[in-house]
User: Fold these one by one.
Assistant:
Number 1:
Amino acid sequence: MKYVVATARAPFSHERVEGNDVVRQNVGGVASSLRRLMLDREGTWVCWGDGALDSLHQEEKIDNYTVSRVIIGKHEKRGFYDDFSNGTLWPLFHYFREKIKTEDFSFDSYLSVNRKFAERIAKHVGNDTVIWVHDYQLSLVPGLLRRMLPEAFILMTWHIPWVAGEFFSILPQAKQILQSLASCNLITFHTDIFVRNFLETHEQMLGSSMAIKNRVAAIPLGIDNEYYSAQNPSDSRRRHNPQRKTIFSIDRLDYTKGLKNRVLAIESLLSTHPELRRKFNYVMLVTPSRTTVSDYVLMKRELEMNIGRVNGKFGDLEWAPIIYMYRKVSDNVLKNHYRFSEIAFITPLIDGLNLVAKEFAAASDDGILILSKFAGASADLRSAIIVNPYDVTDMAESLYIALNMGQEERKARLADLKAVVRRKNSSWWIAKIEKEIIKRGSGELNSPESKDN
Ligand code: ADQ
């Protein structure tokens, strides 16, 4: 099987560093799983060339596959990425009704960038190629491609939640997006809930059909377990303060991640259990994200005010409950945090999956995972302490339980989590998806319903 993969984010970008052209590899679970797939299977990876020097490298052979970069102008980027993808679709698919922007002009840019992607993909498609499109930034690509290539096999993996049909229908362009997705041969989500929501949406807006049911599957992305569980010999030098337990989290700065509620949970914990003063640190690592979107700027200010308030209320000359860091960190630093933190506190208000929870389970020596029930990963990671991220008292109580949990229970829970993550790793994810592709074949496209779409 050969692939043309399409993602908004690039696997590699060319940046200008002190006047030199430097190739940067993009981090993140999706990029690394797909990089491995491309190394094995060859083909083309179509992506957005957003690096400063990417326009000089629009087609580039990397190892045994081609990276084909779509170049987007400044104005178009704003409409496509800032406004429609992240100002409209992102809040829509995470149930943030009040944040959904519906200006028409941004949709035009979104459509035109999706068209650029579709045209570029079409150029690279051969006879036996599977086209694999990823995520909400490229939702119109399948429909556009279907018109150009009626017989092609198109697969879409949707990495974020799919919301209830009634909520989705808020979007003026809802039908257009749904019709595009319905023209795929296969659509995968991370959980059964998202599959059910998608089918219910389809039934409400386009009618019920067996054909669409047969084209949708829940296959959660796995991580590279070996990478995260491998120990680095220099790790022991970087252990956290052994006198204090470490509660750890890492997230992009995003309103879906529930960051402020975590700070409030720390406040609640210390108010109800003052004996825990100086007994722990909450290391809160936050990665800059979407810094040109205004909601994110305001959210950062609010988060930092709350952290300052809680540290001011409980801290002293020798101790502050929250150690807040706003930056990117290297993979090795991240792995050290995973490995040596006693507790991972991963409580998004809603999340398609959440790879951090899985990475922590793989890397941890002896840790406890506190996980939101609204993270897609909680469907598999049942041995975590599962919390409601809207319930600050529940989260504080879970922290208390975790800080006092005996070794036997800790070990049993972690062993269960590790078993799941090991079994459903990134190779399992690819194998499962390829099995579904083979099961469906491309003959299905000749059905009358798919031609209507
Ligand atoms: P993503 O943001 O692609 O989201 P997520 O699951 O949130 O993925 O994981 C973030 C990834 O980035 C992890 O692999 C983590 O290790 C890495 N990372 C984060 N901060 C970092 C930092 N400061 N330094 C280095 N690495 C960092 C979308 C959906 C998710 C879904 C994924 C995958 O929103 O719900 O889990 O895709 O399908």
Number 2:
Amino acid sequence: MKAAGKHYRTIWLDEKNDTVVSIIDQRFLPHKFIIENITTVSEMISAIADMHVRGAGLIGAAAGYGMYLAALEAEEKEAFNNRLMKAATDLKASRPTAVNLEWAVNKQLSAISNAASIKEKIAATKHTAQLIADEDAEYCRRIGEHGLAIIEQISKNKKGEVVNILTHCNAGWLAFIDYGSATAAIYEAHKRGIKLHVWVDETRPRNQGASLTAWELLQEGVPHTVIADNTGGHLMQHSMVDMVITGADRVTRAGDAANKIGTYLKALAAFDNKIPFYVALPSSTFDWNISDGLKEIKIEERSSDEVKYIQGLCEGELKTILVTPLDSPAVNYGFDVTPSRLITGLITERGICRANEKSILELFPENL
Ligand code: MRU
């Protein structure tokens, strides 16, 4: 997608030096567009943990490239395999909720074990990292095509009037490699001339909606309005929302979806107001090993400073300010779980299914 009119992906290998991985450092958006070059696995681990990169798909791709960097670093040293196993463990521990992270690292471990020499193992990690990124972009593009049908139908029902879509957090291209999951259908519908407008939840504490989703939509010229997180219920009660689309960080085989904290409340409000609530995800976000999201998904708890402090632009400079009494304790659960019964459907690269095991497995029978 575009930044200042130029096409970017969120992560790529430097064209002139393929031992350098470039990322868009999201900590400075929407105010500064900064590209960071990463050359070691420990830098990649920090970039994931400190949210230079974030979002399920991008975290997975970053982990894939992290394993490639680990392989390059291990080349000259003894115990190549041990070093790679350590990198895999450290990467997996860098953020707990997004299942794409573990999925990507495991894909790299199997690529390494299938190669013979160290040279071949390095080549395999490079190839696999690129494959993970390319596949993510292609799957998001397909999610957009499938999701488009839903928006088209709503537009038809409204006789071409503006379709109002609410989204939470950032499940746009910045959270993936390109297109995004929740935003893919929005971009596709906008491109085809369907009149739409997006309500963007600001998404405290890190404000990924206000700073990232709003920025993305602006770059693509999609009409949108940023709202305080507590506004969605009111809008839904007054018929100002036609559908909700969110992303997900981990979805169980029975269709429970972990996503940014606050998603569950939007799903409850949508359910109460009979508004369709869709979750868009590539298949790398399914956790096929678990069924009960509430019991089995470990939710990341982040620093309380993210609640107590807020970052913004002040007189041309990025500043961090305290919004609570200094001594008040705060708690920061990064995600919540929306039970499958509140989800109208899952939009995947293979099509749309209901949020239950039978319907999910009809699309993905290899996980029976
Ligand atoms: O903590 P983050 O920013 O990594 O949160 C993840 C997310 O971006 C959201 O939960 C998103 O809606 C789903 S990930 C595509």
Number 3:
Amino acid sequence: MAKATTRHRCLDCGATTVRWVGRCPSCGEWNSLVAEAALDPLVQAVDALDLAAPVPLGEVDPLAAAAVPSGVAEFDRVLSGGLVPGSATLLGGEPGIGKSTLLLQVLRSRAADGARVLLVSAEESAHQVRLRAERLGPVPASLLVLAATELETVAAALAATEPALVVVDSVQAVSAGSSTGGGAGAGPAGPPGTVAQVRAVADRLVSLAKRQNVALVLVGHVTKDGGLAGPRTLEHLVDTVLSFEGDRHHALRLLRAVKHRFGPTGELGLFEMGDQGLTPVADPGRLLLGDRVTGVPGGIVLPAVEGRRTLLVEVQALVTPMAQAQPKRSVVGLDGSRLAMVLAVLARHAGLPALVADVFASVAGGVRVLEPAADLALGLAVASAIAGVPLPADAAAVGEIGLAGEVRQVTALARRLEECARLGFHRIVVPRSAPSGPRGVELVRVDTLGAALAALGLAGSGLDSAGPSPGGGPGPGTIAP
Ligand code: TYD
Ligand code: MG
């Protein structure tokens, strides 16, 4: 039985309402509601088919949603096992970061296991895909490729080949074809590339995947502001949202689950992009700290935690005279509001004058460390930069800083300390209540940021006076009285 078709859907956020209103009650956008009947009659037909009777929960087979490992270990780790048949996954990332390469490796690996898999390449020709595959190794016979941009062609190929896994690269390049629309030119959901179009295409593909019980992966390009084009609309359509990140000028790539209906989202996958595609990174410390220069002011190592992984990164700070009328605060890979807070605490509680200077802080390697546990390392890096005094090369620091200048406990401290010890960082500044560390490690327990500065020899070396340290090179800039 078909449902009443008076529902309206917001083209911006995808929320539905039972009647038309001028402003979307969910996202607040004006004039964004369109009758679903006008949006895509086929989606509705599928919706109607999906009306099923309730069943006792106890009779539902829990193994029906078992993940199938792809064989690409870091990919499986993030998905807590692998892709689930009948599920939809969205892989987002900036152009050129390696989405197509990663998925081609996943397809190859599954095909090498004998599974029939399909790559729908809407952006590259079959020839281009073959050239890329060539770099990655032999191509298994059960890896099929379809170079197409029409949704109807994709649906027909899915029905004809019945693959175990289908990758659509990218969802933005597929058009909800002309045959479903009543008019000429654009499809029923507007011109290709628009939010409505991307949404309609994804909607259809997800429905098809569910019906055929095929694992579907959609590639989505991320726009400059970090949102998936066809923004939040796709995120609640799919079961899993993966984000592939990294610095294009650096080999390290990070895979995260932003949303995952079949497991936890905290896990992090690490890859290195090389000549033969992506290889798993077992020891990220080598990549992240490989180019570190010691004996220079403004840097200290931080044991950061993401998911079940500990990443040793270097937090760096640079303080320079103001280039413009306003002091500039700039962060790369760190949380800008935490930098502002740490600067305020340094000024108010750690004996530093308020900084009238430009402050730059960063974490190298394309890693993002947004956890408050980075505060202490950030505070020490800034103080070291101001004083022009390098911190000990084998020192690390971890701790959250409170507004009163106190250093607070962080999660997974034991694990962080072990990773520091393993990579040769033997002097670790930690909150006073920290558990005892591994053997060979000297814990410097501090209860305030000021105490941390004193413990590392920063207090009194240019910090207490209202100016740069004498002989500290070009100096840290202008410091207000
Ligand atoms: P690609 O997977 O095409 O990125 P996306 O699909 O996210 O746009 O890969 C982008 C870059 O990776 C490209 O500049 C070439 C590089 N690359 C390698 O360095 N090694 C390789 O083996 C492959 C296949 C690509
Ligand atoms: Mg691509």
